[in-house]
Amino acid sequence: MATAVTLPAVALLAYGFVRNPRVPPSPLVGRPMPSFRIPGLDGGVVDSAALRGRILVVNFWASWCYPACYEEAPRLQRIWEAYRDRGVVVVGVNIQDREGPARQFVRRFGLTFPNGVDRTGRVSIDFGVSGVPETFVIDQGGRIVGKYSGAVPEAWLRQQIELLLPGGYPPPDSGLSAAASSGRTVRRRNDAATTSAANRTAKGALQRIQPTPSRGGSSRIHCP
Questions:
Q1: 3-state secondary structure (DSSP) of residue 160
Q2: Which domain holds residue 68?
Q3: How far apart are CA 46 and CA 22, in angstroms?
Q4: What pLDDT, in 10s, does the model give residues 121-172?
Q5: Which residues on neighbouring strands pair with residue 194, listed in sequence order?
Q6: Is residue 59 within 8 Å of residue 72, measured between CB atoms?
């Protein structure tokens, strides 16, 4: 049986999800990604252990998050289609949502990458999520190397991914110099910070996952 999020925890999340664009970058950047194992929207399991050795793009979203989550959904699908054969996995984590609307959202945008449900809110808390949408980039060694709050730009994602792929160079139109290939640009809206880039060969097996129904209370977090 899924454990319900306690009222204090929900209240804390609700407060945090009223976004403040000036909030400092996540202290998790540069640290190991919290492990998670959550149900998928169509029955299956999203298990971070099964994705070791891959470059991960972990996106926290909700069907009621309009317009930001709606703006970025097609971008995430394009990233998945462009890089899935190069050791990159996009993982959606649906939070504080209902099963019907969440499934409709996935169908509406034709999302084929793994999407799981954070029923208890534990994954959101472990990642220090302060609003939806939020996107994290994890290197092949399981370390968080980038975070973006708000509707993530496709160009930003491509920059982060290209720097982690063998060769470590940004795409020609990224605006990053060759010198930047030895590091990463981590941006939170208009804030910037630099962290080292990992450049290891991706390995491991991708476990196919789909979303499952969420069970939660009536508490609602907010989307800007």
A1: helix
A2: 33-196
A3: 32
A4: 999 999 999 899 999 999 999 999 999 999 999 999 999 999 999 987 655 5
A5: 185
A6: yes
Average pLDDT over residues 36-41: 96
Q: What is the dihedral of CA 69, 106, 114, 27, to 10 degrees?
A: 20
Tokens of 57: 């793009």
Residue 7 counted as domain residue:
no
Residue 146: CATH number of its domain: 3.40.30.10
Q: Within a domain: residue 74?
A: yes
126 falls within a domain: yes
CA distance linking residue 2 with residue 38, whole number of Å: 11
* pLDDT tens string 186-197: 333 333 332 333
**Closest CA relative to residue 92, chosen from 152, 167, 170, 176:** 152
Residue 48 lies in a domain: yes
Q: Give the count of domains, the chain.
A: 1
